Amino acid sequence: MITLEHIYWLTGLMMAGVAIINARDATNPRRLNYTAFWGIYAVTFLVGSYLPDLASGFLVIGMVLVASIRGLGQGKKLSTTREEQEASARRWGNRLFIPALTIPLVTVLGTFIFKKIIINGLPLVDIKQVTVISLAIGTLIALTVGMAMLRPPLLAPIKEARRLLDAVGWAAVLPQMLAALGALFAIAGVGNVVSGLAARWIPVDNPFVVVLTYAIGMAVFTMIMGNAFAAFPVMTAGIGLPLIVHRFGGDPTVMAAIGMLSGFCGTLMTPMAANFNIVPTALLELPDENAVIKVQIPTALLLLAANILLMNFLVFRR
């Protein structure tokens, strides 16, 4: 059976490959920093499930120290030249989107199909993680399609992964770290504090007001934390489950789905989501570091309003 652990191993192998490519790049004056950073990150995926929590904590501290001492640099080597990239783009045109579109297609199909495939009495994939596993399988299939179409050098994928990760830097690990922080907040009882504040300051006998508070809270807490996955356990434990689900009998599936979408609206409006909003600005060399956020705010507010109305209409219909 394919489990999430196999996806961790796959990710760890990619990170290890990025570390090795960096170690071999003499053009990067800080290649040892990058090698250590991505190498430690690879270890967390490859054997993190077998390490004690304290050891994993030390690995994270090690990554912080590596990123803090002299910072991280970026090599100058590219797997292809700019001229080669432009020539390939002219040759393939819109067909270049085929590998990219393969990923969501396989992910959606896999979510419905893989969990129905039974081999020797066991499902092919872990039912609880079928979407994530489908995404990983879709990525592998897309990589295969891209390699068959473009026929680049065998090491081109890992070199391009290195180039992108070097450009993004430490921000690449933010989603995982912030999601873990959200889990810690939930364990620490922050959700209970939020629930107490909600009971004190909002009319909890009104279901629409509760939905409004939950959706806006998801967006605001996401703006503070920088990640909807970090906000979700706190807001759901504090408001979603005790009020929407238990008190008013709301559908937890609808609440969770639209609640996450509400959180993503906050992602569009915060510099804390550096890998989404700050890194693109740096890559595009825009003069205003908040340019991406400013453009996204109107869309985010409209989507948040739509999510609130959708949740209020759908969550109690069961």
Structure commentary:
By secondary structure, the protein is mostly helical. 72% of the residues lie in helices and 1% in strands. The protein is built from 15 helices and two strands. It has helices at 4-23, 31-46, 53-68, 82-92, 97-113, 130-150, 156-168, 174-188, 190-201, 207-225, 228-247, 252-267, 274-277, 279-284, 291-314; strands at 118-119, 122-123. A two-stranded antiparallel ribbon has the order 1-2. A hairpin with a 2-residue loop joins β1 and β2. α10 crosses α12 (252-267) and α11 (228-247) packs antiparallel against α12 (252-267). The longest helix is centred in the C-terminal third of the chain and has 24 residues, at 291-314. It is globular, with a radius of gyration of 22 Å.
> Which structural class matches the secondary elements?
mainly alpha
Order the strands across the largest sheet as they lie in space: 1-2
Intertermini distance: 34 Å
Q: Can you give the mean pLDDT?
A: 84
Number of strands: 2
